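Postdoc handover notes: sequence design on the structure in folder B. Input C-alpha cells:
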C-alpha cells in the first residue's frame, strides 16, 4: 500500500544508489547485503541485532587515500586520528598499523590510544577542559603535544610539568572566528564557541608561554568544526593562522608546526564528500612553503562510512496515513538523527526486500521519546517483522555516543576484513546495567 502523502519531497537516493556509492558494500542475489566478503545475514544470525559492523578494509583504504592526497600535493603532514569518532581498540590498532597517530580529548582516550599501539610521541592531547590528573597522565606517558585552549590551562600545565620536572610541548589552539557552515552543535571555530584562544589574544599568550617553566611552545592548532563539506572555511581559517605564524615569527618566536585539525565531511545522503585532495590543496595554498611541520586530525572522514548499524524490524504499525517501522535499534544506540537531525541511508539486508516497490515509512526506535526517529517519509519496501535493515555510515560518532537509556544494553560490535569477521565487543548482558549500583543498607 502506498503512502504518497508522507514521502519526503526531494527524492532520496535509492537502495541501489546508496550501495553503489559505498565500495565496501554490495548486494548479492542469494546472500543479500555484503560488507566486503561477509554476508550481514550471517552476522545477524550468529550475533543478533542491533549490531555495529565495521569494515577494516574501508578504514585502511581511507587512511591510504588521505596520505596519498597529501603526498601528491607535496605536503608532508602527520595524520592524528581523532579517537572520539570511534575509540574501539581494534580501530586504533588499524590506525597504528597505518602509521597514524592519535588526537585524544581525555585520559580515557589517551589510555585507549596507547593500548591500541599508538606511540606516545604520536599522541596529541586536545580538549577544552583537561583535568589535572589527565595532564599528569599525558606528561607521564610522554605525549608528543598538548594543545592548550586557555591562559588558565597554560598556567595549570606549567605548574604540573615544572613540578614533575618535565617539559610539555605545547601548541596553542586558536579560535580563528570563522563559521564552518555546519550544524550548530558541531561548529567550533567561531568567536562565541567555547573552544580555543581568541585570535587577538594568541600573540600575547604565545609570548607568555615561551617564558613559563615546564612549557615549550612549538606551534599553533585549530579545529573549526565537523562534517565540513566546503573548503572555503578551511581556507579562511588557515589564512588567518598563517598571518599569526608570521606575526609570531616577526616578534622572534619559533613557530615550528601547525596542527590543522579535522572536520572533513562525508556524504551521508547524496552530498559530495569533502575531497582529501582539495583539503591538502587548501592547506598548501595557505600554510605551504612556510617551513612548518603540518598535522591533520580527521575522525569522521576515516571511519564514518566504514560502519553500519545492523538492525531488525520489531514490528510495523500504521496510524492514519503513516506507516511506522519500529526497529530493535534506537536513539540510545545511534544518537545522530535525534541529536543533529542527521540523515542516514537505510537499506534492506535481504536482496528480495531490496527490489520490492517502495512506499513512505517513518523509521523509529522503541525508546519512549518522539525524537527516537531515524527517518521520516523514507521510501522503503514492505517490511515484515524480523526483516533486517542496515543503517549506513554509522562508523563515526555511532557506538561511541551510545547510552543505556531505557535500560537498553550496549549493542555488539563486529569487525569485517575481507572474508573474515569477528565480534570485537560482546553484546552487553543486561545484568551489567546495574552491576556497579548499590542500594544503601539504610534504605531498608
Ligand atoms: C572532534 C575533533 C576532531 C575530529 O573531527 P572530525 O569531524 O571527526 O574529523 C579533530 N580535532 C579535534 C580537536 C576535535 O575535537
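Designed sequence:
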Amino acid at each position: 500500500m502506498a503512502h504518497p502523502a508522507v514521502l519526503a519531497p526531494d527524492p532520496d537516493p535509492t537502495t541501489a544508489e546508496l550501495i553503489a556509492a559505498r565500495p565496501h558494500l554490495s548486494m548479492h542475489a542469494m546472500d543479500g547485503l555484503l560488507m566486503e566478503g561477509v554476508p550481514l545475514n550471517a552476522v545477524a544470525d550468529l550475533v543478533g541485532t542491533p549490531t555495529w559492523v565495521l569494515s577494516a578494509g574501508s578504514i585502511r583504504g581511507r587512511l591510504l587515500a588521505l596520505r596519498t592526497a597529501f603526498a601528491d600535493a607535496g605536503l608532508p603532514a602527520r595524520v592524528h586520528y581523532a579517537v572520539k569518532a570511534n575509540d574501539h581498540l581494534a580501530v586504533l590498532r588499524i590506525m597504528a598499523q597505518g602509521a597514524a597517530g592519535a588526537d585524544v580529548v581525555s585520559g580515557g582516550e589517551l589510555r585507549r590510544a596507547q593500548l591500541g599501539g599508538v606511540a606516545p610521541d604520536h599522541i596529541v592531547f586536545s580538549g577544552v577542559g583537561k583535568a589535572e590528573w589527565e595532564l599528569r597522565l599525558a606528561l607521564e606517558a610522554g605525549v608528543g603535544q598538548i594543545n592548550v585552549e586557555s591562559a588558565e590551562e597554560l598556567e595549570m600545565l606549567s605548574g604540573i610539568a615544572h613540578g614533575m620536572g618535565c617539559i610539555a610541548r605545547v601548541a596553542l589552539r586558536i579560535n580563528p572566528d570563522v563559521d564552518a557552515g555546519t550544524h550548530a552543535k558541531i561548529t567550533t571555530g567561531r568567536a562565541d564557541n567555547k573552544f580555543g584562544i581568541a585570535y587577538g589574544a594568541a600573540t600575547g599568550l604565545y609570548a607568555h608561554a615561551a617564558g613559563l617553566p615546564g612549557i615549550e611552545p612549538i606551534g599553533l592548532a585549530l579545529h573549526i568544526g565537523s562534517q565540513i563539506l566546503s573548503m572555503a572555511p578551511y581556507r579562511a581559517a588557515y589564512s588567518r593562522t598563517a598571518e599569526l605564524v608570521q606575526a609570531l615569527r616577526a616578534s622572534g618566536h619559533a613557530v615550528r608546526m601547525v596542527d590543522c585539525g579535522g572536520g572533513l565531511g562525508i556524504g551521508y545522503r547524496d552530498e559530495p564528500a569533502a575531497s582529501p585532495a582539495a583539503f591538502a590543496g587548501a592547506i598548501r595554498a595557505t600554510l605551504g612553503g612556510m617551513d612548518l611541520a603540518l598535522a591533520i586530525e580527521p575522525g569522521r572522514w576515516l571511519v564514518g562510512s566504514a560502519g553500519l548499524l545492523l538492525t531488525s524490524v520489531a514490528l510495523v504499525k500504521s496510524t492514519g496515513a503513516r506507516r511506522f517501522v519500529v526497529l530493535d535499534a534506537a536513539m540510545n544506540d545511534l544518537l545522530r538523527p535525534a541529536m543533529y537531525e542527521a540523515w542516514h541511508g537505510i537499506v534492506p539486508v535481504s536482496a528480495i526486500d531490496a527490489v520490492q516497490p517502495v512506499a513512505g515509512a517513518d523509521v523509529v526506535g522503541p525508546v519512549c521519546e518522539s525524537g527516537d526517529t531515524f527517518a521520516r517519509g523514507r521510501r522503503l519496501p514492505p517490511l515484515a517483522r524480523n526483516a533486517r535493515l542496515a543503517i549506513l555510515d554509522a562508523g563515526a560518532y555511532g557506538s561511541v555516543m551510545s547510552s543505556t537509556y531505557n535500560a537498553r544494553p550496549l549493542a555488539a560490535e563486529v569487525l569485517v576484513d575481507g572474508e573474515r569477521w569477528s565480534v570485537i565487543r560482546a553484546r552487553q548482558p543486561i545484568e551489567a546495567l546495574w552491576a556497579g549500583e548499590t542500594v544503601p543498607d539504610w534504605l531498608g
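Context for whoever picks this up: Residues 82, 84-85, 103, 105, 126, 223, 226, 261-264, 297-301, 396 surround pyridoxal-5'-phosphate (CB under 6 Å). Don't rerun without checking with the PI first.
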